[in-house]
Amino acid sequence: xxxxxxxxxxxxxxxxxxxxxxxxxxxxxxxxxxxxxxxxxxxxxxxxxxxxxxxxxxxxxxxxxxxxxxxxxxxxxxxxxxxxxxxxxxxxxxxxxxxxxxxxxxxxxxxxxxxxxxxxxxxxxxxxxxxxxxxxxxxxxxxxxxxxxxxxxxxxxxxxxxxxxxxxxxxxxxxxxxxxxxxxxxxxxxxxxxxxxxxxxxxxxxxxxxxxxxxxxxxxxxxxxxxxxxxxxxxxxxxxxxxxxxxxxxxxxxxxxxxxxxxxxxxxxxxxxxxxxxxxxxx
Length: 283
Fold this sequence. Notes:
single chain, disordered N terminus, 2 domains, 27% strand
């Protein structure tokens, strides 16, 4: 394992106790790549357990060993599609966060804990058939949509897919912007689905602090109608629109209220309807 700032103290403790065996992480997976987008955001990829089967949009518990010798785990949406041979995650950096203060320092070759029991509500099974799919996200809440947007089923089920991503600053949109661009030029998806299918995808980024092409909270742009006029689509309606929501708790509640005001009902795996909200994501 590569020594890094997050694990240096742990290794020093081990050095003080010669003869003590190095602990083996339970459900360990190996980091294969890491990319930092800003001082607040990074993504990383890890090996995938051979037994892991999941639906695009689901999350798993991942983490590291805590200082007390017990696993420190958090729910992380899988950002890679179900067909990918590796698993990708997109994370915020919280300098004093119990987990992310350490997780942000992982390097290729390091190990993390990954509990292979995927769950979640942001799945196609929880939505009724519709014409237009809205994916509303803030910050790292874009992660499950990174999985769903690379799943052929998403393009097969809907005539139009609109993903909105709201962040404070422009550099925080890098992950989503590059991913959407890569999908539109993905030769494998193009061969599988056709150029016309990839044309269904529309990307609507906004910023709330730094100046950009589209400013403001997405909730405001829904309320004043500018979101729909910008895109040339009708206002939300339960006959055509389906939605998935993933962001901060306040954002989720605000979007949920607007969707219900438009006549859409919240669905679940056991009772599909017009929209779903990821309740496990609160950051």
